[in-house]
Design a protein that fits this description.
Layout (H helix, E strand, L loop, with lengths): L3 E5 L3 H11 L5 E5 L2 H10 L4 E5 L7 H10 L6 E5 L4 H9 L4 E4 L4 H18 L2 H6 L2 E4 L2 E4 L4 E4 L2 E3 L3 H12 L4 E3 H9 L7 H15 L9 E4 L3 E4 L12
Parallel strand pairs: 1-2, 1-3, 3-4, 4-5
Antiparallel strand pairs: 6-7, 7-8, 8-9, 10-12, 11-12
Helix pairs in contact: 2-3, 7-8, 7-9, 8-9
The structure holds calcium ion.
């Protein structure tokens, strides 16, 4: 498949390294050495992925990311951050980045992340198809989004309205990491500080209903220091004989 990647990175060595190593994965790579140039490319052309450095001249990576998301540009963004602080990672995800890597990173790891993002896009197809999709099946869990019914290995699971909304949100975006406040925004429609425990308690209840072992979840995974994600491909569930 024809893929195109926009790399916004001011360090020439890194930009060159990315260009060389991503050639096999895509047919077109566009390099931008500052934030404003990167924004201009992202607004004028369609890309399948944007690799975005956080510290940039012209316009910072976070600002660029916020800008694009504000214009309903949902091209996947892989953020590169030189700082390993939890705050930066959380901020990046809050601004709408899909994944992040902390510098210095291994080029093999980066290539693996890019492949994972492309795989996810293939599974999801384009967003509108996904939104229309009524049935979502992930591992043993099946959602009927019109009837708002969930079955686990064929048996109906009783969920509250919010538990269903949360599960649907996760299942529509497998592999994507969400912070608690992003989940509040998307599922509850507000992001009040201090309400993160609402997310935690709903996740605990969902896990008790759909996970074989809620202490070792196969579907709703904890991303330490950041939040949660829904498994791309759930870990093989143990046959409990039930
Ligand atoms: Ca930089």
């Amino acid at each position: 498949m024809e893929r195109s990647i926009l790399v916004v990175e001011d360090e020439q060595d890194i930009a060159h390294l990315l260009e060389v190593n991503l050639q096999d994965l895509c047919s077109r790579i566009v390099l931008a050495a500052d934030g404003l140039q990167g924004l201009a490319h992202a607004q004028s052309q369609q890309f399948d992925l944007i690799i975005l450095d956080l510290k940039l001249p012209g316009m910072e990576g976070l600002e660029l990311c916020r800008h694009l998301r504000g214009q309903a540009n949902y091209t996947p963004i892989l953020m590169l951050t030189a700082r390993s602080s939890e705050l930066d990672r959380v901020l990046g995800l809050e601004m709408g980045a899909d994944d992040y890597l902390t510098k210095p990173f291994s080029i093999r790891e980066l290539v693996a992340r890019v492949k994972a993002i492309f795989r996810r896009m293939e599974v999801l197809g384009n967003k509108t198809t996904v939104e229309r999709c009524r049935q979502i099946q992930v591992g043993d869990v099946a959602l009927d989004t019109e009837r708002r019914q969930v079955t686990l290995r064929g048996s109906l699971v009783e969920l509250t309205a919010k538990e269903f909304d949360l599960l649907e949100h996760f299942a529509r975006h497998p592999g994507r990491v969400y912070t608690r406040s992003q989940l509040l925004d998307s599922v509850w429609g507000y992001g009040h500080d201090g309400y993160e425990h609402t997310v935690n308690s709903h996740i605990n209840r969902l896990r008790s209903k759909i996970e074989v072992d809620p202490a070792e979840p196969a579907y709703i995974l904890t991303v330490w220091g950041v939040g949660y994600k829904f498994a791309d491909t759930p870990a093989k569930t143990v046959n409990t004989g039930t």
